[in-house]
Amino acid sequence: MPKAIASIDDVQALLAGQGYVCGRPLATVAFLALRLGRPLFLEGEAGVGKTEIAKALAAALGRRLIRLQCYEGLDAASAVCEWNFAAQMIAIRTAEAAGGADRDVLKAELFTEEYLIERPLMQAMRPQPGGAPVLLIDEIDRTDEPFEAFLLEALSDFQVTVPELGTIRAETPPVVVITSNRTREVHDALKRRCLYHWVDYPGFEREMAILKARAPEASEALSREVVAFVQRLRAEDLFKKPGVAETIDWAKCLLALDVVALSPEVIADTLGAILKYQDDIQRIEGSAARRLLEEVRRELAVAPS
Fold this sequence. Notes:
The chain has helices spanning 8-16, 24-36, 50-61, 76-79, 85-98, 103-110, 120-125, 145-157, 188-191, 204-214, 220-234, 244-256, 264-270, 278-284, 287-302, and strands spanning 40-43, 65-69, 81-83, 116-118, 134-138, 159-162, 166-169, 175-180, 195-198. It is of the alpha/beta class.
């Protein structure tokens, strides 16, 4: 564990230095993951900052970030390594043209690391400049159960096995962050190897702090309106509620348009920055947006600034 991180407060301060504002519960589980060398499993809605914490940790620790983006059909070859068949074929043709190549010697030469294409999991087991890397396994819920089972070896012993090369073990375990949007349940065997935290939507004050860190150009008044409006939106019956990422995007869009205060017209023109489904946009634009804005202004008028 880095000497600079001796407490939960240190984790919060380091992350804040990278523009990532987190509450104490998340900072606590991140501190424990670093202290105990355990993978950190973050679950929550899309856009609440699960991926960003891995980026912030890597930047704060001065480590390399290695990202394994999960998808349906992801297999070991894509996650660990594969052989460079084109280079192997060239080597075979060259040996045949030269004549007298010993088949066993050639076979042994072809299956060496010279012809190996390393993918994220194997890269994470290798020594890296600056220390063990941060391995981000993003959106694990998009993969299938066989791939989860394959990950157990990597997360239990921080090693991967390649039949032709044997077992490759990390000298220093990487810092592992796994995220899930919970589109399906992840197997308990994988979760047991991790420290778990549900990343929820932030409260008003924390979202204000996040927006101030990520869009400092926005005025206090505009930021309060933006955050209050987005938080009101999350209470509506929407197919996809806007996350913190959308709050930041919307504020930046409003700044690009030189908006100083929300209006029904501005909201209608920029709803695509915070809502990503046409049904949700149709539900909110017009009278609903006007109603929400009025509620926001009444709320902010009585709230202490």
